[in-house]
Inverse folding.
């Protein structure tokens, strides 16, 4: 329970006033010499038990009266979670608001979304709880913004829905940094989220550090988790998996592939009209849904022959979450996918060359340039989509070239040479070669994202079938993508601000591994890295909203949410033009996964911290907390009544003995 | 008698002339002296008086006929009866004798209580003083026992007018203190007073009734004429208090903290039970019982006492 006027709780000692007065009164009682003690003792003996009980009851009632009065004046707040907050008004209240697309799920009453309900709850609740400072950290920018009052949550543009996913660990880190740099006093941290697993990234190694950071703060911090974990009602989502322009003898067409997924609450088979809008030209395709997912593969939409570049939008009818009913795209003439293979032994890198040369589609043109490390200066880096580096790590100017390339969103896969050397790049160094025991296989790998992700059909890559005979040691911070059963990293991704640098700790030589003989894994890895790297070469790009940072200066919106402000375009889904380049921003694929954090996982994340979880229904419009001073006044009145009844003189049933002389 | 009256006058003058005799009011005594004090039962006095004796005597009041036995005085043979029955009967007459009055004054601490400007002990002294005066005035012997924890003062019955002064002095000096041992004292008195006497007890009798019953049975067994003045304060009866108080036992050091709103009913119950039982006990022991609240005029109480005895005199 919390109080709007907690200062008045300082008067709580007054509760003892009735007891004190009682004790003082006992001392002030008049003493009377009494003759008829024999009757008094008899009466006293008979009535002692009840009298004592009555005295206690009266004292209790009087104490309750004072307590009720004090608590009523302190304006207590209560909710379905009595004991919600303990104590005083917070010095600073930090609000972490999840604005991700999944928060746009509509309420059952159809009036608003989870985000609306969360903002509404927060505005009302925090207004009542009060605080000296209000800070908003929204999931899109993850930057602290001072707000004047909780009511700003209802109107501020930083609280609207966006296409970008939330990163709760990053938001908490921001909150921690804010508290540390501003030396806040007692701080309440309110987190409004739908508890989607991908937003929370419960397996992230950041959590222990975040937890420990908050625990080490000198000030008192309390977390309130306003959760909306319930599944959306009937919902269907749309995701475009491929879009490319193709020229045939009949003319140009746009080939699109898309997945339509509906949740288990959705109605059984129905026709879903899928509307394509290509720069204003609309067409509709009726898709019959027979299961939970449907894949529309290589659907062709005719284009004008002259339309080399363009953008569009694909839409399905509105349902409980409108943010996953759209997908935006842009297209261009396919680019040549150039790969730079840097090796000292070209024959040893032949498998790599083949993996890069063989395109996934006949219409995609590829090329591989094989160079030695000494020929880097002659390379045209602007055309390179992927660098396969199987040579000692570069140093000096060569290293700078690679770093610049990565900063320009290039992709590199580093493989060890026969003599890895001791140079380092991206804070990474090769170790020495080791022969692995025969029984060692790939123990686990990340199948949900990145190079080893499952195929579109959901099948896993045969990574487990790989045989690794020799492994080169790796030294440096990285995110493991595949590890051997011995715990050694086979494939990892180095941390970089942009682009991507991968480390493969073995080679495709038969004596080192079966990467070449079981070539599927190698081929998919290389092609995925190449496809991602070539994105930067295109005039059109597909990106996840929010992945490009917050800078959207100079952007022009071609289509997308009209509510988006220009400086926040990067967080919204839509198609934007920046210079000559088209950017299609969409929600991340993880947004379509409805898995939420379990209670056990949540408990683990906040273990040791002072936190309260407030599960709420999105369609609840009532405030999380209500003033309950009336209840205390009622208690006070009842106590007053009880005291009056207990103090009421009893009706004398026994007539007084005759007081006159009886002669 | 002249001498006695003169001495009495001197005593009264002595009593009213000094502040020490505060419990005596000459005017009241003068009014009371007009009413004789009678015994309800035949007395066994040493001299002639105005009370009936258990022995036959020479008064003018016929008592009974008795068959003549050898040795009887022939002058007392009723010849008229002989003429009617041809049998010899002796005519007997009542004997008059004086009264031995033993006053018992409870001087325990509880007698100090008084809520209306007068204490029970003072009231008892007024009654005892008046009774002593009246008895001596009509030639009866009066004694006084003051009892508290022990017998504080003991004056045997005397009919000498000078004895009255000693009684007044003893009354004057009687100060309430300590616990009462009235029960034990009454047993002693029953044993120590050999002849029939009028036993007058002034007390509040705040004792267990079982203990008191034995005392009165004992006195009754000794064929004494018992009179009881139970002195009660109006506040003791009403027990009217507005706020909790600490009650200090006047016969001991103990105290009780009580809230009148809680305890009054039960107090009244206990008091009513006691008074009912006490009255029943008085009836059973044929005691001349007077429950007196001390805000009543003692002259009126005393007059009622005398009148009651006048109505029941001669019961043998």
């Amino acid at each position: 329970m919390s109080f709007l006027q907690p200062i008045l709780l300082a008067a709580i000692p007054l509760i003892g006033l009735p007891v004190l007065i009682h004790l003082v009164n006992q001392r002030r009682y008049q003493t009377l010499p009494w003759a008829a003690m024999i009757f008094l003792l008899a009466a006293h003996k008979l009535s002692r038990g009840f009298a004592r009980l009555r005295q206690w009851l009266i004292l209790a009632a009087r104490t309750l009266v004072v307590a009720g009065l004090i608590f009523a004046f302190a304006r207590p707040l209560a909710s379905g979670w009595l004991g919600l907050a303990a104590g005083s008004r917070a010095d600073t209240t930090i609000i972490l608001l999840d604005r991700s697309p999944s928060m746009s799920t509509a309420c059952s009453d159809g009036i608003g979304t989870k985000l609306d309900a969360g903002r509404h709850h927060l505005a009302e609740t925090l207004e009542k709880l009060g605080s000296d400072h209000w800070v908003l950290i929204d999931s899109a920018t993850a930057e602290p913004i001072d707000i004047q009052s909780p009511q700003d949550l209802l109107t501020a543009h930083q609280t609207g829905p966006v296409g970008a996913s939330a990163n709760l660990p990053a938001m908490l880190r921001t909150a921690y940094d804010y508290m540390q740099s501003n030396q806040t006093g007692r701080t309440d941290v309110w987190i409004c989220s739908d508890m989607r697993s991908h937003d929370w990234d419960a397996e992230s190694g950041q959590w222990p550090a975040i937890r420990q950071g908050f625990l080490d703060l000198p000030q008192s911090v309390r977390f309130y988790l306003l959760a909306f974990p319930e599944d959306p009602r009937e919902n269907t989502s749309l995701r475009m998996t491929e879009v490319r322009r193709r020229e045939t003898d009949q003319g140009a067409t746009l080939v699109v592939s898309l997945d339509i997924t509906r949740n288990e609450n959705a109605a059984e088979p129905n026709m879903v009209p899928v509307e394509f809008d290509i720069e204003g030209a609309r067409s509709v395709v009726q898709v019959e849904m027979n299961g939970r997912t449907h894949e529309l593969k290589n659907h062709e939409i005719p284009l004008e022959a002259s339309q080399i570049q363009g953008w569009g939008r694909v839409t399905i009818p509105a349902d409980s979450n409108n943010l996953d009913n759209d997908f935006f795209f842009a297209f261009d003439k396919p680019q040549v996918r150039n790969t730079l293979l840097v090796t000292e032994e070209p024959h040893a890198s032949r498998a790599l060359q083949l993996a890069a040369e063989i395109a996934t589609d006949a219409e995609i043109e590829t090329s591989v340039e094989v160079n030695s490390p000494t020929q880097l200066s002659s390379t045209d880096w602007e055309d390179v989509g992927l660098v396969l580096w199987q040579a000692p790590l570069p140093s000096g100017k060569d290293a700078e070239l690679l770093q610049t390339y990565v900063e320009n969103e290039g992709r590199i896969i580093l493989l060890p040479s026969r003599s890895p050397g001791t140079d380092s790049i991206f804070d990474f160094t090769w170790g020495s070669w080791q022969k692995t025991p025969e029984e060692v296989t790939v123990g686990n790998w990340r199948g949900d994202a990145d190079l080893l992700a499952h195929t579109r059909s959901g099948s896993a890559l045969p990574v487990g079938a790989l045989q690794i005979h020799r492994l080169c040691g790796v030294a440096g911070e990285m995110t493991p993508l595949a590890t051997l059963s011995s715990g050694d990293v086979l494939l990892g991704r180095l941390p970089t601000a942009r682009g991507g640098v991968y480390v493969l700790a073995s080679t495709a030589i038969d004596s080192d591994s079966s990467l070449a003989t079981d070539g599927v894994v190698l081929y998919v890895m290389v092609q995925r890295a190449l496809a991602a790297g070539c994105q930067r070469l295109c005039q059109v790009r597909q990106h996840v909203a929010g992945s490009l940072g917050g800078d959207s200066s100079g952007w022009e919106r071609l289509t997308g949410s009209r509510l988006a402000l220009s400086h926040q375009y990067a967080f919204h889904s839509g198609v934007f033009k920046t210079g000559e380049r088209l950017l299609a921003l969409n929600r991340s694929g993880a947004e379509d996964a409805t898995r939420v954090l379990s209670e056990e996982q949540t408990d683990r994340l906040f273990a040791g911290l002072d936190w309260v979880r407030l599960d709420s229904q999105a369609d609840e419009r009532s405030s999380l907390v209500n003033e309950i001073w009336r209840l205390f006044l009622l208690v006070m009145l009842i106590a007053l009544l009880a005291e009056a009844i207990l103090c009421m003189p009893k009706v004398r049933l026994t007539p007084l003995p005759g007081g006159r002389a009886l002669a | 008698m002249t001498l006695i009256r003169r001495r009495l006058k001197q005593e009264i003058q002595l009593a009213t002339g000094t502040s020490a005799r505060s419990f005596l009011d000459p005017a009241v005594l003068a009014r009371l002296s007009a009413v004789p004090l009678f015994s309800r039962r035949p007395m066994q006095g040493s001299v002639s008086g105005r009370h009936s004796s258990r022995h036959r005597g020479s008064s003018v009041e016929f008592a009974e006929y008795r068959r003549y036995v050898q040795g009887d005085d022939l002058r007392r043979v009723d010849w008229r009866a002989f003429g009617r029955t041809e049998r010899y009967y002796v005519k007997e007459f009542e004997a008059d004798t004086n009264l031995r009055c033993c006053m018992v004054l409870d001087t325990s601490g509880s007698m100090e209580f008084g809520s209306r400007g007068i204490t029970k002990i003072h009231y008892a002294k007024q009654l005892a003083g008046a009774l002593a005066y009246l008895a001596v005035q009509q030639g009866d012997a009066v004694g006084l026992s003051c009892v508290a924890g022990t017998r504080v003062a003991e004056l045997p019955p005397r009919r000498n007018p000078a004895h009255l002064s000693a009684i007044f002095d003893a009354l004057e000096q009687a100060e309430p203190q300590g616990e009462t041992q009235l029960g034990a004292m009454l047993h002693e008195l029953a044993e120590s007073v050999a002849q029939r006497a009028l036993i007058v007890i002034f007390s509040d009798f705040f004792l267990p009734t079982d203990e008191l019953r034995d005392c009165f049975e004992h006195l009754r067994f000794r064929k004494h004429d018992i009179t009881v003045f139970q002195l009660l304060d109006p506040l003791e009866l009403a027990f009217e208090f507005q706020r909790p108080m600490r009650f200090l036992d006047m016969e001991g050091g103990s105290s009780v903290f009580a809230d009148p709103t809680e305890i009054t009913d039960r107090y009244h119950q206990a008091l009513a039970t006691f008074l009912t039982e006490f009255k029943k006990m008085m009836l059973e022991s044929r005691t001349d019982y007077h429950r007196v609240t001390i805000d009543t005029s003692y002259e009126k109480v005393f007059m009622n006492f005398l009148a009651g005895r006048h109505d029941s005199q001669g019961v043998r």
Q: What stands out?
A: Chain A touches chain B at residues 25-26, 29-44, 46-47, 50-51, 54-55, 647, 649-650, 652-663 (CB under 8 Å).
